[in-house]
Amino acid sequence: MEAEKPPKNPEQEEMFRKVKSLEKSFRNMQGLGGQVSMAYKDLCLFPEVQLPAGFKMPKFDLYDGHGDPVMQLRGFCSKMRGAGGRDELLMAYFSQSLSGSALEWYTRQDHSRWYTWDDLAQTFACHFHYNLEIVPDRLSLTKIEKKPEESFREYGFRWREQAARVDPPTKESEMVDYFFQALEPTYFSHLVSAIGKSFNEVVKMGGMVEEGLKSNKIMSYSAIKATTQAIQNGTGGCTWKEQERGCRND
Question: Which residue from 122, 131, 124, 132 is spatially nearest to 104, judged by alpha carbons?
Answer without folding.
Answer: 124
